[in-house]
Amino acid sequence: MATPGWSSTDATTLALDPRAIARNRTLRALGSMALLVLGFLLFWPTTAALIEQWEDTVRRSYTHGYLIVAMSLWMLWWNRAAWSQVEIRPSVLACSGVLAASVVWLIVYRAGIRIGHEALLPVMIFGAFVAGYGLQAARRNWLPFAFLYFAIPLWDAINPLLQSLSTFAVRMLLRTAGIPAFFSGNTFTLPAGSLEIAGGCSGLHFLIVGIAIAVLYGELNRDPWWTRVKLVVLAAVLAMLTNWIRIFIIAVAAHVTDMQHYLVTKEHYSFGWVMFVGTMVIFFLIVRRWPAPPEAQAQAQSAPKSGPLSWRGAALALISLLVAPVWLLADRNTIPKDQLPRLLPATLEGWSADQVRHDDWQPVFEAADMIQRARYSRADHSVEGYAALYGDQHQGKELVAFNNSISGETLNVRRRGRAGHGPWMEVEATDSSGARWLVWSAYRLDEVWHDDDLTLQIQYGVRSLVSAPLSAVVAFRTRCQGEDCSAARDTLRDVTTSLAASVGN
Question: Where are the alpha helices (DSSP H) in 257-307?
Fold first, then answer.
């Protein structure tokens, strides 16, 4: 079946004109590269979140991100001959799949689940490629898109494991060298001082880059799958060994110089990369000695069965990528600030309202659209109320975020748990004077209370597709009497019951 806009005359021309064949290859490669760039531009909120991590010079685990994207683009160009003879068959099914993924992207983006919408980006771009070029083209050109995952922070999931492995390896090396060291978790104490194998010292960056190099090397040599697996395993082992030896050298330097060595007092990041370069040299020296696989029989060159891209394929690829960004721009689903309700009423049944004092309790909820405070008293009991309201949420403006805290910076949390009363969660904390406090908090989405933050955020993302949901956190604090917080717990139970009756369940 001929591709629309492609005739047998065109095929004859290509068969007779090598320059036309080369031009067809070039246009296919440029089209796929443009599609990758377009995906990053159209889904800019995700791209901006990735750039933030690629430019993080504190953790530095993904500062190779720009290079990964550049290598993916280069591979699309380098690989242009591999699918130059494939017939272009646009896929409506792939377009539908990208549209479904786009809806999920909208949900997780508005829910503030960063890793969710970041992980979907390469999938949607590759799906648009399949929609435009077809499955046969995708089979021969999938790796450049999968290569993008070396720049996606999914690798953070294995960071704790790498920390533990590094700690164990360094402990064995120090023991073998006869250097006394006491280990507590990821921190070890030498006679001259203590060192910590922090998250940034786990070797994650070395591991990611090492595996990426192995994958690229296997692709450039068109190695069989078993050889590629061995390349990845070798690179991973060498990368981890490099990090273990690096930490060991720093520990030895700290021990013999009483913690005064440059690697301890100044900087050891560059030292690690110098070691890594040496490790990669060893990697290439090893793999070059491996038996070369039998060369694949070269296929006879023939004219492509279709042109660089059909109008139908271009339309399907663009539609699949455009729907979510257009939806996001056209439908903000935001509650205006002047329409946000009051979640802390002026009066509660059985309680009297007092003047609010902004003392040592300052919860942190960044980018909240409205903060409400209240103070209620009854007999000798006093309760402080706090609410943070969000008229909308998106990446960088989430109710549930790493930096948000119901205790704030002034309360020292001693215990967390469920309050045992409805959706409320309990925090026991002390202030700067040593006084003990009990804090109850719960999330609210429209009229429904929640105690699970992930469920709340996912439900918010789903509802935001068709409405403007209100999301908020409500908290109350009261002081414990000495070491006994049972009376404070009863007080909070009474005030939250009165609140439910006042603002609805």
Answer: 262-265, 269-287
What band does 451 get if pLDDT is binned at 50, 70 and 90? confident
**pTM value?**
0.86
SS3 261: coil
- Eight-state DSSP code of residue 411: S
Task: Give whole-number Cα distances, 126 to 40, 121, 213, 306, 495, in Å.
Answer: 12, 9, 21, 21, 53
Question: For residue 324, what are its two tokens?
Answer: 């979510």
Residues shown for the chain: 505
Instruction: Report pLDDT digits (tens) over 127-152.
Output: 999 999 999 999 999 999 999 999 99
Apex 184 CA angle, 180 and 187, nearest 5: 80
d(Cα 72, Cα 33) in Å, to the nearest integer? 9
- Measure the CA–CA gap between 296 and 382, rounded to whole angstroms: 81
Instruction: Name, in order, each residue with C-beta under 8 angstroms of 106's C-beta and a sequence gap of 6 or more.
Output: 324, 327, 328, 461, 464, 465
- 196 contacts 187 by C-beta, under 8 angstroms: yes
Cα gap 503→501, rounded to integer Å: 6
Count CA within 13 A, CB hemisphere, residue 130.
22
